[in-house]
Each structure stands twice: as C-alpha cells, then as structure tokens.
Design goal:
Elements: H1 4-23, E1 27-31, E2 38-43, E3 47-48, H2 50-53, E4 55-62, H3 72-88, E5 95-99, E6 103-109, H4 114-122, E7 127-131, E8 144-145, E9 188-194, E10 198-205, E11 211-217, H5 219-231, E12 237-241, E13 244-247, E14 259-266, H6 268-279, E15 287-295, H7 300-350, E16 354-355, H8 357-386, H9 391-427, H10 430-462
Helix pairs in contact: 1-7, 1-10, 7-8, 7-10, 8-9, 8-10, 9-10
Amino acid sequence: MNRRPYVMLALILVLIAFALWIDLSNQITILNPFNQKSLIDRNVSIRLGLDLRGGLQTLLEADLPAETTVSSDDLNIARQILENRSNALGVSEVVMQVAPPRRIVAEFPGISNPEDVVTSLQKTGLLEFVDTGTERLNPGTVIQTDFGTDGAVSPTNTPDSTLTPTAEATATSDAAPTEVPAQTAPVIYHTVMTGTALDTVTVTQGATGQYQIAFTLKSDSKQLFADFTGSHVNQILAIVLDKTVISSPSIDSAITDGAGVITGSFTLEAANSLAIQLRYGSLPIPIKVVESRTVGPTLGQESVQKSLFAGIIGFIVIIIFMMLYYRLPGALAVLALIVYTMTSLMLFKLVPVVLTLPGIAGFILSIGMAVDANILIFERLKEELRAGRTLHQAIDLGWSRAWPSIRDSNFATLITCGILFWFGNAFGASLVKGFSLTLALGVLVSLFTAISVTRTFLHVVLDNLKITEHPRWFGL
C-alpha cells in the first residue's frame, strides 16, 4: 500500500488544526516550558482599513519656504521614517503615501490617541550631545549649537576646546571713540556628536524606578565618546533634542564601552516617545501638519456584512455546482476549498494584511481561482476514466496533464498582481495595493491546495474504489 497520501493527509490535518487556532484567536501566546516566559505573544486579530472602521487622516507637508525645492529622495526617506515611528507607536495599520512635490498623506485606522501620534510624527528628532563646560542647563532650555543644517559639526571646535562666549571684534579708527551699548553675543555650544552615532536605544528603569533611555554607540563613535568623556571629567555633557535641553548630566569618569543613559523626569509614555524618535533617526526635512481630521468609516460594518453575505452565497453556489456535476470528487473539492479558506484567513492574520473592501473583493475572487484549478483536474480525471484507466492512474494522469494550465493561468495572475502592487505603491493607491496583495496570497494558497490537498484527498478516498461499480459517483 502506498503510504505517501496518508503522510500528506497527516500534515494537512496539522495545518488545519493550526489554521483553526489562528482563525479563532485574537491573541496567541506560546510559553517557554522551562521558565513559563512568553516565547510568542502576538495580536492576530483581523485588521480593517480606514474605509471600514474609520480613524485619523493627516496631511503632512515639508516645513520649508515655498521657494525651497524638496527632493523626492528626502520625501521618501521622511515617509519611511514616519512609518517606522508610527508602527513603533502601535499603529501598525498605517498607510502613508507621498504626494509630490512636498506632501505626505497618512491614514491611521482605528487609533485612539490621534494628538499623541501627530505630535510624535512631526518632530524632527535631532539629538545632540553638547559640551556646555561647567554650565548646567535646566531641562527645557532652548540653546544654539554649532551643528549646521548640512549635518556637519563645525570643524573649528574640537572636543577639547574651552567653550566660552566670545564677542565679535570691533573695528578701530582714528576717530574719537564713541561709546556703544555692550552687546552680548549669543552663546553657541559645541556639539560633540549627534544621534546618528547611536546603535541601539531602549527604555529602562533606574535603581529608583525612574524611566530612562539606555543607548549604545556605533563602533566608529565609541573612541570619540571615550576620548571626550576622559578629558572632560566633572564637566557637563548636555543631552539636547531639537535644540531643547533634556538633561545635563555630569561626566563622572571616562565612558569607554560606548554605552550610556539619558535621564530626566520621564513618564513611561514620554520615554517611549523619545526612544522611538531616536531609534528611527531624524527626519531629513522638517514636517508640519497641514490638516488632520478624524473620519468615520466610509463603508463600515454594513458593507462588510454585505460583502461577507455575497461571499457566502457564492460559496454555497460553488458547493452545489461541484457536488451536482462532479459528485464524489466535487465533495472532496469542497473540503479542499474549506482548507483553502482557512489557510488564507490564517495568512491574512499572521502577515498581517489590513483588509479594505477591495481587499475582501480580491480574497473572494481568489476563491474562484481555487475552484478553477479543481475543475481542470476533474475534467482531465473524467477523460482518463472514460479512456479505461484505473482510478489511481486517472488521478495521477489527470493532475499531471491539468498542471500546465493551472500553473500558467495562476502565474499570469501573479504577474498582474505584482504590476498592480507596484502601481499602487508608486502612485499612493493603497486600495489597489490591498486588492493585489489579497489576490496574490489567495492564488498562492490555491496552488498549494491544487498540488497537495485536492490530490491527497483524491488518493486517500478513491484509490480503493472500483469505477465500474460506482460510475455515477463520478458523473459518468
């Protein structure tokens, strides 16, 4: 007896059990059996887009003079950094689209703290480690530094220089001296290094329970930091974010391991917000909020229910057709289609895919693609049975001769999905991206069910039947 179909059946049953677990869960947790700590703790609830559940829609713009040209590279880098920040804030369904020449459109489905999200996103996040000598500046103080807008630290100052205010020289002449009011030049402090030197940034708690930001430096910045702290013991190295002092710690000793902490009167939310800004870098261009509005679902629960109702009706019609026309193989195809639906939903929750109404349409369309593969196999199967083949031979020959058609049609669909996804990504058409993604995932799963699931079910159930005794079971 050929055991291979039964081995495949066992694997398919394991897949079904796993898919059921994911499909019926909103949160999955796997514990380490040795210490009972969580190995996996993940939210797998279905995520709906802005058109189905509402949220926040924000229009961001480069905060630069109108005559300043904003490069497309800077705009795309800003969009990527903003996406990273928003995902770290827990808004993982965010959709951001570049709207040339200087705007970014952001959508945040279902968020509950729109003000915090917008405030965090528009900050440039420029971190500087500033030498203030022996002067301890209060948190919140706005200062000037010698870090230029071109991203370069002024070469005229070195980490070992003495930083004191200097007045501009006054010109002299033969004329009688005239008394002029004394003018105090603004104090410009020296930036030792910026946030680009940071390697990792995490939120920790100190010995007294206060929140702080722990950081490590990249290898090429460790020596600079060690040299500076070693030659400036008992002096102040201010931590400055966007020209505003966060804290002014004193250097107790040389820091040679490239690790340190930023302390201050942080709440957990403030520490997390700062860590996110530092972790994902400063924006290449300043960003301002042009418009921000909370929107209700444009389609909402009623549209979801109608879409699901239409999908269920279509599924029932498919079941009736397959069982009436193909009889027993049709019933097995229905089982394979159920496996397909469960597996697709599992992938949507694990990826995760943000479902919009076009995305749901792409999923329903992919069900038709899965049925199409089964129809091709069964038609070939019936042809082989009419030619006098045994059931085992007819199954293998029917599948192998239907496979080229299945492969070519599905790969053509995948190519189309790739083009649609590129189009949606390039032109900011997120709804097109959602449709192409769900359709592509559905096509890939349908290939799996056609190659493995349907064929395995046919062998397990039909190999021991004699076609001459039950021809009506096959629609012959």
